[in-house]
Automatic annotation (TrEMBL):
Keywords: Membrane, TPR repeat, Transmembrane, Transmembrane helix. TPR repeats lie at residues 192-225. PROSITE patterns: TPR. InterPro entries: TPR-like_helical_dom_sf, TPR_rpt. The chain crosses the membrane at residues 18-37. This is Cellulose synthase.
Length: 528
């Protein structure tokens, strides 16, 4: 068999095959490099979109949330199964649903959460969104069970604390809720949504200065956080501050079209209504309230302000409006306690008492923790409620019931202790129990003039007049006018009080003291 040149053939075949194999390997390596480079680029793009989305969410305004959503949609086009991004989307849509009441956000929030859970996300956004959605849907038992399970697993995040706070608030455990809101805001201090939620909880309790402070923390992080700015304005108006200081804020926010979700539209309109009320224009206030309820029918502040405006008009519909506000947020003391006061001032003692009875029913089973860890009825520590109830009973002529309520307010030893001492002292004065009244009144109106409650000094002055101690009584009345002036009482009001005291002295056979009194008190109400 001819074998010449065979070795050359084998040599040529081996070389060609090797070159071909090298070429294949080179192609595969090139493809792998391209794939890895592409994968790295995709990962970089995904990370960039996620960082941008998180940064936008931290700003907290609706336009920021929309920008975050756009980045998440771009991210999902590259990586549909990015589980933590899905959880962030669930958190974002839950905010738009429960806080801003954006139409359609509820379905999107549920969809994104289901996907995050299916993908196995274990981020704080996933669990926080789940609990918040349960609370928002009224499934409090399920929310509590999930929180307990997560706590047993060691889970802990500001979002879960915020969810816990909302659950506690819904259950009427307000003291615990305040602590949880505060802890959540502290833990997520870079996110103004948390301080804003805390501020709203304080506003619901009628704690206006504390609420304004919480909103201030939110605007320190983001000076343009609209919900914090507007609700702070509302808190200031509820506290009785002049509307001029917040009008510019409301006018500016109204121009922010793309940011005005239903919640913001309603909140701005409520604040405008309160500004109109402060200027003595209840009909204008009602027009703004109608706009607020058109934007969001469940805005409890709008219903409350409607009741306030109708009460200012002395309209009988005020009771229905105030009861509607309480029905929307039964665990908000501001609505019930202030509502009862307004109805009482309008002469509707029956309506005021009905509101307080409903409040007692709401909180009857709620327990509060004492400093030593004991559980006591929350109503036993609710001095504001007992003060309100005592005032209603006193106005109805039920003095014994009023005294019992004031005693409960005193026993609570809360922040309203001085107010309770004054209330009971004033009632004892009316009953001519001078010894009992003097003991209580001097506790809040010391004879040195160091107290801060003008009405307590005025009551003590009346007590001393009744006992014939006119010089000492004039001294206490003088302290009353000084304190009232320091707290911003109008000069014409001070003048009326001073002249009333002068007449009292004259009719009591003290003309010389009446003249001396007016000489001493005159500078307090004279125009500079």
């Amino acid at each position: 068999m001819e074998t010449s040149g065979h070795g050359d053939w084998k040599r040529r075949e081996g070389l060609g095959s090797a070159l071909a194999q090298i070429g294949v390997v080179a192609v595969l390596l090139a493809a792998a490099v391209v794939w890895f480079v592409h994968r790295g680029q995709v990962r970089q793009e995904v990370d960039a979109h996620l960082r941008t989305a998180r940064s936008a969410v931290l700003k907290g305004n609706p336009s920021d949330l929309a920008m975050a959503q756009q980045n998440l949609e771009a991210l999902f086009a590259l990586a549909p199964d990015a589980r933590d991004a899905r959880a962030l989307a669930a958190d974002l849509q839950t905010e738009l649903w429960l806080t801003h009441h954006q139409p359609g956000a509820d379905a999107k929030a549920r969809e994104q959460l289901e996907r995050a859970e299916a993908l196995g996300s274990r981020s704080g956004e996933r669990y926080g969104a789940r609990v918040l959605q349960l609370v928002g849907a009224g499934q409090t038992a399920e929310a509590q069970k999930l929180l307990e399970e997560l706590k047993a697993q060691g889970a802990n995040s500001p979002r879960l604390t915020l969810a816990q706070a909302r659950l506690l608030q819904k259950e009427g455990r307000l003291s615990e809720a305040r602590q949880a809101f505060a802890h959540a805001a502290e833990g997520a201090w870079k996110d103004p949504r948390f301080s804003t939620a805390y501020g709203e909880a304080l506003l619901d309790e009628g704690m206006f200065p504390q609420a304004v402070e919480a909103f201030s923390r939110a605007t320190t992080v983001n000076p343009d956080h609209l919900l914090a700015r507007v609700t702070s304005a509302l808190a200031q108006l509820y506290a009785g501050r002049p509307p001029d200081g917040v009008t510019a804020t409301l006018d500016e926010v109204r121009t922010r079209g793309k940011d005005l979700t239903p919640a913001l539209q309603a909140r701005v309109a409520v604040a405008q209504a309160e500004a109109a009320l402060a200027k003595g224009a209840p009909d204008e206030a009602l027009t703004h309230v109608d706009a607020a309820l058109k934007a969001w029918p469940d805005e409890h502040y709008a219903l409350f302000t409607r009741g306030r405006a109708l009460a200012a008009k002395r309209a009988p519909e005020a009771r229905q409006a105030l009861e509607a506000a309480v029905a929307k947020r039964p665990t908000a003391p501001l609505l019930t306690l202030e509502g009862a006061r307004l109805l009482q001032a309008q002469g509707d003692g029956e309506g005021a008492l009905a509101m307080l009875d409903a409040y007692e029913k709401t909180f009857r089973e709620v327990k509060a923790q004492t400093a030593d860890g004991k559980a006591v009825p929350a109503l036993d520590r609710d001095d504001r409620y007992w003060l309100s109830r005592g005032g209603v009973m006193e106005a109805a002529g039920r003095q014994d019931d009023a005294l019992a309520a004031y005693d409960k307010a005193l026993a609570a030893r809360g922040v309203g202790l001085a107010r309770a001492q004054y209330a009971k002292g004033s009632l004892l004065l009316a009953r001519k129990d001078f010894e009992g009244a003097r003991k209580l009144l001097t506790a809040v109106a010391p004879e040195t003039g160091a107290g801060s409650m003008p009405e307590a000094y005025a009551a003590l002055g009346e007590l001393l007049f009744a006992q014939g101690e006119f010089a000492a009584g004039c001294q206490q009345h003088y302290f009353a006018l000084v304190r009232a002036r320091a707290q911003g009482a109008p000069t014409d009001q001070l003048a009326t009080r001073a002249n009333d005291i002068k007449k009292r002295l004259e009719t009591s056979g003290q003309p010389a003291m009446a003249k001396a009194w007016l000489n001493e008190a005159g500078p307090l109400f004279q125009q500079p």
